[in-house]
Design brief:
The chain is mainly alpha-helical. The protein has helices at about 5-15, 20-40, 45-60, 65-85, 90-95, 100-125, 130-135, 145-155, 160-180, 190-210, 210-245.
């Protein structure tokens, strides 16, 4: 006669499986996306922000160590690099739309990236953050996979850099539409470029959900900003390291 396992034992078994963390990640994001659609794609109802908050609450309630959670969530983490490379498709398709706009985009990329880095580092230093935390601010202005690679090259914490990058992306995706509306920026290619530089992959998702042209320019802006930062930022910081204290 087969004995039935107690529900508590089944729960212990399921919660200990690495795939359980993956289920939590995907389920919370799906719930966030449903709420986002039902809210008529209101930027405040950001599905990633909802997923992050819910996931933190769940793993805290379950007393699940982050290392255990990451055993399952690493499958999603692995796809970050693939998703970034896949942006080559809209970038390639959108090159013809850059005619007459290349100079403006380079100015936007240079100014946006520089201001983002300088302001973040200055605020962190003003608030008395540690050198490791301040150093992580230098790379947080590009998409997460590239930012983590830059962090490793400049010998700062990739984990902290990833956290700041995701937070930057979430805030950018939520606030950018309101800021651009307040500034009365109407052209989709300008809105897309600004969101791509300031909000990374999360901003691209938001841009594509609103307008295709905005999404394409956001992809190009993020991709170009990532390439330039990956090459130039470590070189610049290497020469300035004695003066920056990182």
């Amino acid at each position: 006669m087969n004995e039935r396992l107690p529900i508590s034992e089944i729960w212990v078994y399921l919660s200990g499986d690495p795939l359980f963390a993956l289920i939590i990640t995907l389920a919370t994001y799906q719930l966030g996306y449903i709420l986002y659609v039902r809210a008529n794609r209101n930027p405040i109802v950001n599905p990633v922000a909802i997923s992050v908050v819910l996931t933190c609450l769940i793993i805290s309630a379950l007393n699940m160590p982050y290392e255990k959670y990451f055993e399952g969530a690493q499958f999603v983490h692995f796809l970050l690099g693939t998703a970034t490379v896949a942006l080559a498709v809209p970038i390639y398709n959108g090159f013809r739309r850059m005619k007459g706009k290349i100079f403006h985009m380079w100015v936007a990329l240079t100014a946006g990236s520089t201001v983002s880095i300088v302001s973040a580092v200055a605020i962190a230093q003003w608030m008395g953050a540690s050198n490791n935390m301040v150093g992580s601010m230098y790379a947080k202005s590009v998409t997460a996979p590239i930012a983590m690679g830059i962090a490793e090259r400049i010998n700062v914490s990739p984990t902290l850099t990833a956290v700041f990058t995701v937070i930057t992306g979430m805030l950018g995706a939520i606030l950018a539409p309101y800021i651009l509306n307040a500034l009365k920026v109407q052209q989709w290619w300008i809105r897309g470029t600004a969101i791509g530089v300031g909000a990374h992959g999360l901003g691209i998702t938001r841009a594509f959900s609103v307008n295709e042209e905005a999404g394409i320019f956001a992809s190009m802006a993020m991709g170009l900003n990532g390439v330039i930062s990956a090459i130039g930022l470590p070189i610049v910081l290497t020469h300035l390291r004695p003066y920056l204290g990182i």
